[in-house]
Design a protein that fits this description.
This protein has 13 helices and 5 strands. By secondary structure, it is α/β, with parallel strands linked by helices. It has a 5-stranded mixed beta sheet with strand order 3-2-1-4-5, with helices on both faces. The longest helix has 23 residues, at 200-222.
């Protein structure tokens, strides 16, 4: 039998943003799927997590997408490190036995999970699998659909693919519903295009190549409007490099400074004036370049507990 007639694990994250280097996990789902399953038959095999996001606030734009608020995660969320650790354990358990993990636009979800694990100094998914290669086999309905039906116009988002392939997606942007829909769409693509009915490791290898081609084509298209656009081609995980680490911390610094810079000069938060603000920002950037992490006064309580207070860090 082909992979689409065998057990699969659906995986999805809802997060705080679209930047894989700075996004934090808000909710996560991993669903053990068997042929014939639907949302009504999965409650015992759908694992769900709600993270406290490491004490961070959830941006309003993210809440508008998935509906989870800062108040909810602070009241009911579990420690972010525990959530990332448990999700990685579940995925590693499946992959180590050859069960494919299905993730829509998996490049995003696997990379966000990887960065969360690194953020809390936990073993990466690759380390849990005992190797340095990217995790697999992964099946990505986004990559499959773009390859099998290259010239079809219209959106390739999960909601659009679900509608096109006749899959019910009753609660888009909730992790469990999206994880299930990703599996059902992937199965529907395989049923429509028999050439995809191969061994999952072979399909994983093909997708690695297809995803790279697709990224290159998208980059060419986007550079017609912005010549500096870079589209990541790695799949299903964007490699973490020293340059990416530094860029991630600086991006995080910018996001934390944004609310302060939006205040007017006469607001209490900006009482020391614009010049002081510029000096503080410059000092923060120097601190990031020196230490490789955020300044202590911009850390949340959870981050201070992880990295230590300034006095503890100096000792």
């Amino acid at each position: 039998m082909s992979w689409h007639e065998e057990p699969l694990v659906g995986f999805d994250l809802e997060t705080t943003g679209i930047n894989v280097e700075t996004a934090r996990i808000v909710t996560a789902a991993a669903i053990d799927w068997k042929p014939g399953d639907s949302i009504d038959t999965l409650p015992d095999r759908a694992r769900l997590w709600l993270s406290n996001v490491g004490g961070m606030a959830i941006p309003a734009q993210a809440t508008a997408v998935h509906g989870v608020t800062t108040e909810q995660v602070r009241a009911n969320g579990r420690p972010a490190a525990d959530v990332a650790d448990e999700v990685a354990d579940v995925l590693a358990a499946a992959l180590s036995t050859g069960i494919p993990v299905v993730a829509m636009n998996g490049r995003y979800d696997f990379t966000v999970l990887d960065r969360e694990l690194r953020r809390y100094e936990l073993p990466t998914l690759q380390e849990r699998l005992g190797g340095e290669t990217t995790p697999g086999p992964v099946i990505d309905p986004y990559v499959l659909d773009k390859q099998a039906d290259k010239y079809r116009k219209g959106s390739r988002k999960l909601e659009a693919l679900a509608a096109y392939y006749g899959v019910t997606l009753a609660a888009a942007h909730t992790a469990d519903a999206d994880a299930l829909a990703a599996v059902q769409v992937a199965v529907a693509v395989a049923e429509k295009y028999p050439q995809l009915q191969v061994h999952p490791q072979q399909l994983h290898a093909w997708q690695t190549w297809w995803a790279r081609q697709q990224a290159a084509e998208l980059q060419v298209h986007l550079r017609r409007m912005d010549p500096h656009v870079v589209v990541d081609a790695e799949w299903p995980l964007i490699e973490f490099t020293g340059e990416r680490r530094l860029r991630a911390v600086l991006d995080d610094l910018i996001e934390r400074w944004a609310p302060l810079s939006a205040c007017s000069d006469d607001a209490p938060e900006m009482a020391h004036g614009r010049a002081h603000g510029y000096r503080k920002a410059a000092a923060d950037v120097r601190d990031v370049l020196r230490t490789g992490r955020l300044p202590h006064d911009l850390m949340t309580d959870a981050e201070l507990e992880q990295h230590g207070t300034p006095k503890e860090a100096a000792s």
